[in-house]
Amino acid sequence: MLEVERGFGHVIIERVWEPGGPSFGSYEIDANGIPTITLAKDDLTEANLAHELMHLKLILQGYPRIEWRVSDSRFTTQEIANELHELLATIRDPIEHFIFHATIAAMGIMPDPEDVGVLTRYVYDKSRPKEGSGGSISMFFSLTLSVQDSALRRQLLASYERKGLRAEALTGKAMALQVRRMHPKTPKDEVDCFSACLNIYWARKRTATLLSQSSERRGNIARKVATLMVKFY
Predict the structure, then answer these.
(1) C-alpha span between 63 and 65 (Å, rounded)
(2) Mean pLDDT, the chain, whole residue set
(3) Is the model's pLDDT at 35 over the cut of 90?
(4) pLDDT of res. 17
(5) CA triplet 87, 134, 74: central angle to 5 degrees?
(6) Fewest C-beta in 10 Å: which of 6, 10, 25, 71?
(7) Is the dihedral of CA 15, 116, 83, 214 positive or negative?
(8) Is the same domain home to 55 and 70?
(9) How far apart are CA 104 and CA 118, in angstroms?
(10) Strands, DSSP E only, in 5-125?
């Protein structure tokens, strides 16, 4: 934590969500570059704190905030904006988790232990409402990338096949294989990997390419920004 605080030049503000709020944790940086970590009251664990600290550390290492541009003004709708924003959580975040999981494990902490429970509930909870195709793809992608137990991953695939979601599972698997193949280790690697996963996810209906890179002053740091162009077909 001290290393991250030195990087931002400010102590990290720590907050707690009350029970019933969001699960696990989150991080943010305000306009003055002050970092905040918020953890769920029911999940005040060393693993969750380390997870959010790693996200902040990536920012200090130059991993950028993503901005979006679309090639056609007809698609500058709030619905599209919301969808693109959601992809930062469902596709980009798992890539960042892949990048720093080894670092957390080297600290003697099991990274994201709750993902095993999420996978198990997904497989065995028959009352769970069915997601749309996109949600099913991103769920398979993130769990396959995070959970190392091959038997559990096979159970997840079998569950998808029982639910008639084999195509979604194969897309999610292809995205996870892309991340492992590219094995991003730098900010550029990560943006390229995110774009590649988006292009698999969209299956030729859209494409994402890097348009520009810049930075924005946030207190003591210059936060990097990558702008992606989304083209619709």
Answers:
(1) 7
(2) 93
(3) yes
(4) 86
(5) 65
(6) 6
(7) positive
(8) no
(9) 20
(10) 13-17, 25-29, 35-40, 65-70
